[in-house]
Amino acid sequence: MTEQRFNHKIPRRTFLKVCAAAAAAGLTACSKTQAAAALPELTVGSDNYPPFIYLNNDSTPTGIDVDIATEAFARMGYAVRFEIIDWEQKTNLVESGAIDCIWSCFSMDGREQLYRWVGPYMVSRQVVAVLADLAGKTMMVQSTTKPEEIFLAGTDPRIPQFGELLSTEDRSVQYAMLNCGYVDAIAAHETAILRYMQDCNANFRILEEPLLVTGIGVAFALNDTRGLDEKLTETFAAMRADGTLKQIVGKYLPDPEKYLEVDALEP
Question: Could you tell me the pTM of the whole model?
Answer without folding.
Answer: 0.75
